[in-house]
Specification:
With 43 residues, the chain is mostly loops. It is built from one helix and no strands. The two termini are 21 Å apart.
Amino acid sequence: MIKNKATERIKADHYLHIHVIPNNNVDLLQKTYKFSNQNMEVT
């Protein structure tokens, strides 16, 4: 979005990527992610 902002419909200089996950969704919250080798909250 930022890298290609000249051709994007919505222009942006900055953005936040936010995950909103219920506490009892342990499948996502406790999963170990390859990128960080940590859970979602830490990652």
